[in-house]
Structure formats: C-alpha cells, structure tokens
User: What shape does this take?
Amino acid sequence: MATPIGTLLLLGASGDLSGRLLLPALGQLLDAEEQRRNIILLGAGTEDWDQETWRERVRNSFESGQVSKETVDAVLASTRYEQADVTSTDDLKRLLDAGPPAPALYFALPPAVTVRACTALREVSLPKGTTLVLEKPFGTNAESAASLNELLTELVPEAQIHRVDHFLGRATVLNLLGVRFANHLFEPLWNRDHIDHVDIVFDEQLTLENRARYYDSAGALMDMIQSHLLQILALVAMEPIARVDALDVRDAKAQVLRACRVWNDDPVAAGKRARYTSGSISGRDVPDYTDEPGVDPVRNTETLAELTVEINNWRWAGVPFRLRSGKALRDRRKDVLVTFNPLPHLPTGLHGDVVSNRLRLSMGPDAMALEVNVNGPGDPLDLESASLSTDLSPGRLPAYGEVLAGVLDGDPLLAVRGDTAVDCWRIVDPVLQAWRENRVPMEEYAAGSTGPDSW
Assistant: This one.
C-alpha cells in the first residue's frame, strides 16, 4: 500500500503553471472529495514573498476554479510559503523538514532547473514514501531521457515517479479503454485485417499565447507528438489487459511503444512540417509566426507536424498510424479516427456515396461517433453516410485534478513510465535529426486555414 502523502511541496509556486492550473485543480480535487484530505500545501520559490502574499495567490487561484469557501479556508489555515533555491541541498533539506512526511515534490519548473534540483536531492535523505512529480519534456532525446531516469531512480522507486501527461486525464483513459474492451463489436476487428489506418489529431486554434520561450525551442513534434500523441497511440493499439490498473496498462503501453518506429524506417518520408504565416482565426488577426514576440526565425521551428509510424507486431503490421498536431488552424480537433478497410464488394443495384466505416473518439469533451452506410430517405437503393454518436463521461475533475489525485493516492496509472519516455524519444529522434539537417522542407500555411494545400 502506498504511503499517504502528508505534504504537497510545490517547487516553482510563483510560476504560471502553479497559479493557472495546479492550484485551481488542487482546490477542485479537495472540493470533490467526501472527506477532505489531511494534507499540507507548501509553496517554494525564489521570490521574497511574505505569507499573506502567498495566501492571496492561493485564494485567487482557488476562486478562479470556483472552489468552495470551506475548502479555501481549510487550505489557507495551514498553507505556507518558503523562499528557497530549489537547486540547493541545504534549502531542499529545509523544505522537506517544513511539512509532515511523506511529501510529494511537484517540480513546476523549467526542465533544466528540475534536473539540477533532482541532482541536489541526491545529497538529501528523503522521507519514506516521497513522490517526485515532473512536467514534460522528460529529457531532450533518448539518451538524456535515459540519464534522467537513472537520476530519478537513485532517489525513489519508479512507482513513486509521476511524469505528468495532463493531456490524458483519468476519464479520457477510461473512455478509450471502455469503448474498445467493453464492446464485442470492436475488439475482434481491432487489427490489421479490418483496420486500414488510424489518425490521431490535435489541431488547435491557439497561437503562441506568450509561450515563445518554450515553444520556439521545441516545436509541434516535440511539444505534442513525441509526448502526448504517442501515449494516446499506445492506449489505442495496446493488447487486451486483465485489469485496469497501473501495472497492466503501463506494461501494455510499453509493449506497443517498443514495437513502434517511423514508417518504413524512413525519417525523411515519414514526417512533414510547416509553419503558419499571417492570417485570421475567428475574426482575430494573427501575425506571421516569425514575427511573434520572442520567436527566433533562425531556429526554423515548425508549428504543424505530421508523423506516420508503424507498429511492428502481428496485430498492426502494415497499418499506418498518422499523428498530427499544430497551432493557428481553422478547426479545433482532438480526435482518434479509426478508418476500417473498404468494402470488398457492394451488391449490384446498391449505389451512392459509400464510405469506409470510421470510428471517431473525441477527447475534450469526450465523445464517440461511428460512421456507417445506410439507405437514404428517397430511393432505398441509394446509400448515404450516417453517424451514430454519443457523449462519453467527462469525469468529475479537470485533467490536472486527476493528475494530482493520482499523485496523492499513490496511483501512477496516468503517469508516463520511464522506459516509455525513452521509447517516445527513440521514435522521433531520427525525424528531428532529419529536420535539423533540413532534409525535409518547411512548408507554410495561412493562420486560420486547415494546413498546407499539399497535405
């Protein structure tokens, strides 16, 4: 049984991630529970804040998440802030002594600072049950991700390391598994004999939104495909499991990612990249990406990426999985689209716009739709496409609330395991190298369009 978490130690407590996402999610989690947890919230950062400044930040963040007054008051009664250099061994010892064990250390920090803080923790005697929580990216390539894993497992066991993938909240994970494994209609067809291809898409209308400092050094492939979309692929493509728990699910995901590689082992042909130019999205004028504040055109950063991969196993051999993500696009999409094989034969006499059956699983809000061919309203021999759709459970918490619940409950179901983090880099590293060497052209698309005309 996991050791109950006594302290949530938020490193980087004054940052945007903490104020905009983590603190509201914590309040919503505490609000949703029938019996409120006995947990101390401790904030730490380099800013010279007094306790009232910190409490005001917590209060404002909780209120932005519409947290009840009772929860706000309960947390404010015990929370406190410590000024600290989180890369200092002495300061980290002081922080760990400031609250009851076992602590969860949430590194709401830039990746390089997180690594330095974890290095300093090697000289600290961590309380039993200490949990480490890290935001992506987990390294910058396969080699650095493996090195980071070695560092982290020197500190705590793998089960107490939560690499956060907020893109996949608990409700979304369970919805994906439920649709597939709870329906005899789908599982027997879930293989290369019946499925033609799979698309996993995250298109957004948002532009940089003041994130150039991070995004311009990452780009769409590293920001979304290397992490989130490959994790979704693993859930969609994994073998049937015996139990929905961290052990079975993470083992099954790891098996898929070990078998995954770029299509035909050709990193040049398997990937496409593009960058938005000036345009308009929902009436809002958008400048050329290279003119956005903080962007360095020399970096040649893509804002739209597409990568085709294959899974080298019996179930999926020969089936292309296309992963796509981009910014400043016309439509907002967060979908898994499973396209089944074309009909082998249509009886003579039937006619019309016959399409391959497709299953669309949408995330945020979660929904599903099955596209089928049916008789039209006029001529009964004239076929047309229809969609059978339903909404799926949204869950009781936002994604970060579910992440924090997993951390505080000691359940790593939603956490990215160390070996899969390395494999995600292994898959995309050859593509990134081809792009750095300019062996793949940088195409362009107008902001507010669906992407380059040639795609």
In short: Residues 24 and 339 are 38 Å apart (CA to CA). The longest strand covers residues 382-391. The chain has two domains: 7-135, 170-395+417-446. The longest helix spans residues 418-436.
